[in-house]
């Protein structure tokens, strides 16, 4: 009798422990990989495949999962205007993807991707990188295979993933400049048109129920490392300006080389900054790149992750190792992990080499960022034609 009782008690305890230990369904996550400044041609000359290496690492057993990726520009490494052979190499390097489709990467144009002032606007980037799928025969981007379809043009477009609303703005040539991209090489100073800024304001106001993520190749003024006036430069022993984080072109706008300087043809316009100051918390994240430096570098009292006007700014640059002053290249990117029902996003920095620290996650700069509202996953079990599954 006692033996039977002990057996019965043991079975009850076992059953209770099983119920307690059975895990519930884990919250679903959306992982957004953000990278920039591959400068493919520059690294290729040194025998390194800056884009393909990062793609391979992400898909390796020791890598990390991602559902979509944002490429924030400067695929080209040329100081002159980009040419077809570099575009072909970029498409070839994208071709190493095994677990993801090319269409899971959403791109915008950087200053090195611009074409010359006397050429068709961004013809090279539109042909070979091509977010709108205008030239599928060259870029291999099929807009029908996007996990989340885009709305807009190559210069400015948006897409939605659950209650995330992404605004992608490309850098362009400033139309009032008579010298610039091509003539001056990299032509520092970020540019958007008045049409793009007005579009941005309108869609921000119309989508305030969403978690809004803005992306441009450049950071806004005085937000992250070296994004202030003249902070892209340094002084020589005589006190004159020379190249620093960016190339010094005295006939350009070297004072604004580190930030989005031109808006609607107005120099140092402050258009985005003024809007955000007057309407704080309108956007949750501003993602940019352009300034390549160590992941924990600070300059002007600013790091690569800062919060202003209720918005968190993250400089994700760069994948390149060689498009920097010798010995300073630290290839890296960022992963943003959104969890269903949570109003926080985890931002992690991944080092793609051993130049600064061991390859892999660099926890020193990891952040947990507060969002304006809880994240809601996209509806449906999968996205047709892709490997994305919810």
Mean pLDDT: 90
Major beta sheet summary: 7 strands, mixed
The percentage of residues in β strands lies in: 15-25%
- Give the CA-CA distance, first to last residue: 52 Å
Q: Give the low-pLDDT segments.
A: 1-22, 381-387
Strand tally is 19
According to CATH, the fold-level topology is: Purple Acid Phosphatase, chain A, domain 2
- The proportion of residues forming helix, as a percent range, comes to 10-25%
Overall domain count: 1
Question: Count of DSSP helices?
Answer: 8
Rg over C-alpha atoms, rounded to the nearest angstrom: 23 Å
Overall shape: it is globular
Reported CATH architecture: 4-Layer Sandwich
Specify the CATH homologous superfamily: Metallo-dependent phosphatases
Note the run of SSEs as H and E: HEHHEHEHHEEEEHEEEEEHEEEEEEE
Derived structural class: alpha/beta
* Overall CATH class: Alpha Beta
Entry keywords:
single chain; 390 residues; alpha/beta; Purple Acid Phosphatase, chain A, domain 2; seven-stranded mixed sheet; 8 helices; 20% helix; globular; disordered N terminus
How would you characterize the overall build of this protein?
The protein is of the alpha/beta class and 390 residues long. It has a single domain, classed as 4-Layer Sandwich (Purple Acid Phosphatase, chain A, domain 2), CATH 3.60.21.10. It contains eight helices and 19 strands. It has helices at 2-21, 40-44, 50-59, 84-94, 123-128, 136-139, 194-206, 271-278, and strands at residues 29-35, 68-71, 105-107, 151-152, 156-161, 164-169, 190-192, 211-215, 233-235, 241-243, 260-263, 266-267, 285-288, 305-308, 311-315, 332-339, 344-351, 360-361, 367-370. The strands form four sheets. Strands 1, 2, 3, 16, 17, 18 and 19 form a seven-stranded mixed sheet that branches. The chain has a seven-stranded mixed sheet with strand order 4-5-6-8-13-15-14, with helices on one face. A three-stranded mixed sheet has the order 7-11-12. Strand 9 (233-235) and strand 10 form a beta hairpin. The longest helix is centred in the first third of the chain and has 20 residues, at 2-21.
């Amino acid at each position: 009798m006692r033996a039977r009782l002990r057996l019965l008690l043991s079975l009850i305890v076992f059953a209770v422990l099983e119920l307690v230990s059975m895990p519930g369904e884990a919250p679903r996550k959306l992982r957004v990989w953000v990278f920039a400044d591959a400068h493919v041609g520059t690294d290729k000359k040194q025998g390194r495949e800056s884009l393909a290496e990062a793609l391979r690492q992400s898909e390796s057993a020791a890598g990390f999962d991602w559902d979509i990726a944002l490429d924030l520009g400067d695929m080209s490494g040329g100081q002159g205007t980009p040419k077809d052979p570099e575009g072909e190499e970029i498409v070839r390097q994208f071709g190493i993807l095994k677990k993801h489709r090319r269409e899971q990467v959403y791109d915008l144009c950087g200053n090195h991707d611009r074409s010359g002032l006397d050429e068709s606007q961004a013809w090279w980037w539109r042909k070979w990188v091509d977010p709108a799928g205008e030239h599928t025969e060259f870029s291999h981007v099929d807009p029908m295979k996007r996990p989340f379809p885009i709305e807009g043009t190559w210069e400015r477009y948006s897409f939605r993933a659950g209650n995330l609303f992404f605004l992608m703005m490309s850098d362009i040539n400033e139309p009032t400049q008579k010298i610039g991209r091509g003539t001056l090489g990299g032509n520092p100073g970020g540019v958007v048109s008045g049409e793009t800024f007005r579009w941005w304001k309108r869609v921000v106001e119309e989508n305030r129920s969403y978690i809004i993520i803005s992306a441009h190749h450049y950071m806004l003024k005085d937000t992250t490392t070296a994004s202030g006036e003249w902070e892209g430069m340094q002084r020589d022993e005589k006190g004159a300006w020379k190249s620093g984080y960016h190339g010094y072109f005295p006939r350009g706008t070297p004072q604004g080389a580190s930030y989005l300087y031109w808006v609607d043809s107005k120099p140092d316009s402050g258009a985005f900054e003024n809007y955000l100051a007057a309407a704080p918390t309108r956007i949750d994240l501003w993602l940019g790149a352009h300034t390549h430096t160590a992941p924990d570098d600070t300059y002007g009292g600013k790091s690569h992750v800062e919060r202003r006007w209720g918005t968190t700014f993250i400089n994700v640059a760069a994948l390149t190792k060689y498009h920097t002053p010798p010995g300073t290249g630290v290839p890296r990117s960022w992963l943003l992990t959104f969890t269903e029902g949570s109003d926080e996003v985890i931002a992690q920095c991944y080092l793609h080499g051993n130049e600064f620290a061991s390859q892999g996650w660099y926890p020193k700069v990891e952040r947990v960022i507060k969002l304006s509202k809880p994240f809601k996953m996209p509806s449906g079990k999968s996205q047709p034609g892709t490997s994305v599954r919810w």
